[in-house]
């Protein structure tokens, strides 16, 4: 008796594989969603209004793709790209951008890295990695205020939306 188990057609095998892969990719894994990103930005705008400043906000997902990128009226045009770069730097380095700045200084562990990435690696405050359930799910960039203002607002938003950070 030769029992090799059930036999499946190519279409059945493809469908089973698709379902298994789909569940492995998304099942119970935290991710940066549009709703989460919008919540961060809305809270950021509220905080900016309270502080009397106009800012730009960028949220990227775990792959570095923009989820939300929003510019408040009256914010600096230069802050548009900087916010995006802050979000991407925080994600790719898995740390706040001001910590990246410390590491790329002369004598730091990543000295010289600040000159890489065609100037897109941000080494001053306002970018934060976003963790959920101890998993890195994205990056959040705030730009247009002083470094201290950008840091404070980014931190406030993350603490409100994602209370436990990496």
Give structural notes.
Helix content is 45%, strand content 16%. Helix 2 packs across helix 5. The protein is built from 5 helices and 4 strands. The chain is globular. The protein has a 4-stranded antiparallel beta sheet, sandwiched between helices. With 166 residues, the protein is of the alpha+beta class. It has helices at residues 10-26, 34-51, 78-93, 97-104, 147-161; strands spanning 56-61, 66-71, 127-132, 135-143. It has a single domain (30-161), classed as Beta-Lactamase (2-Layer Sandwich), CATH 3.30.450.150. InterPro entries: GlcG_carb_metab_protein, PduO/GlcC-like, PduO/GlcC-like_sf. This is Heme-binding protein.
Tally of helical segments? 5
Along the chain, the helix and strand elements come as: HHEEHHEEH
* Class inferred from helices and paired strands: alpha+beta
Structure summary, number of beta strands = 4
Contiguous low-pLDDT stretches (5 residues minimum) are none
Radius of gyration: 20 Å
Give the C-level CATH assignment.
Alpha Beta
CATH topology: Beta-Lactamase
Mean pLDDT: 89
Strand content: 15-25%
CATH architecture: 2-Layer Sandwich
Can you tell me the number of structural domains? 1
